[in-house]
Amino acid sequence: MKKRRPVVYDFLCENTELRKCNCYVEEFCSMSPLQQLRNDLASHEQQPSSSPHPWRSFFNKSELKKEVTEAMSIATRVRNFLSQHPFDQIICFDICCGKGYSSICTVECCGGRDKDMQLFMLDCNKHLKMDYLHPLYSPQCHFVPFTIQKETNNLYTFVQQQCVSLIKDSSKQVAIILFGNHLCNFLSEQFVDCVQRLCAAPQEKKNLLALLSPCCSYENPNNTMYYQQFGQNRPLLEQVFAKEFISTSLEQYDTHYLIWVYYLKQLCKQGVVRIEQDSLVLSNKNLYLIWEHLQSTA
Ligand SMILES: C[S@@+](CC[C@H](N)C(=O)[O-])C[C@H]1O[C@@H](n2cnc3c(N)ncnc32)[C@H](O)[C@@H]1O
Question: Which residue segments constitute the domains of the chain, with CATH numbers given?
């Protein structure tokens, strides 16, 4: 039998202390379909001349633990939303999905295989090898090579068209869910724009959950005004956050990041958006913009 190189996921699963100190990591390591895939990977790689197993790259990301906490933060929020209502149909969009950790965790956390759940994973990187989605995740997860444009609303157009073609019966209770983990620069702006347009459409707003974790803003000329207001006045920025959004300490966050989150929040004129911190996410960018509309409360 060939000796195999372990993957990062093996290390997480076997290190009880490491996994138990974060409940997201613990839940991820306990998911039985992933455990089964880990066993498949091990037996595949012990064969004498095996080709690379499709799940190796998914399980062997160097920052797997951090990725898992980000993905599970999204997935548990989706689970909480879905538990509030017996939905007939669930349509999800993972915006800039990368390797798809958020999508896989969402299917697992929400019992997606037993539900009418369709999940569109969008990313411009056509070279992402998504063959690991088949066959286990292919009934729910669809990878779509898609480039979000800066100057158009092509993201909203895509989302809206998918919803129109999938929602066959308007009497059904449909949940529309969008998530974007660590979206940089204009990708966050386009995400907000898309949600704003969905919020403005009564049919699409009915049962809507959108989760955005913004990432780097680089030099975005659109938020200059907020730099003038807060750039040199961190105490004022913290006061605004404490008064309007979250009361926990903001010490760990870079001023640029807080201004960026604030700016994105100010773009929202439609629907209700809140900011939440998730300290279980092992990143110094763990603030989330959250839009949550349920038909009964909208
Ligand atoms: C920081 S990563 C986020 C990855 C993923 N959300 C995750 O949590 O692992 C950014 C992703 O955005 C994709 N991306 C960058 N520009 C894009 C664009 N214009 N349209 C669609 N995807 C894009 C990249 O290919 C990359 O996978």
Answer: 8-60 (no CATH), 65-293 (3.40.50.150)
